[in-house]
Design goal:
Layout (H helix, E strand, L loop, with lengths): L2 H44 L1
Length: 47
């Protein structure tokens, strides 16, 4: 494999990894927000 293709592939892999990390942060953030909303809702039913 030529050097040019290898560097392009590495750059693409790095970009994909960064995007994947961003998506994971968003997913966990949304799940945390939903958990907090559920807690607030469930405690409001108890009172």
């Amino acid at each position: 494999m030529s050097k040019k293709n290898q560097t392009k592939r590495e750059a693409y892999a790095k970009k994909q990894e960064e995007k994947g990390k961003k998506v994971m942060v968003w997913i966990f953030g949304v799940l945390l927000a939903l958990a907090l909303i559920y807690l607030i809702w469930s405690f409001s039913l108890l009172s």
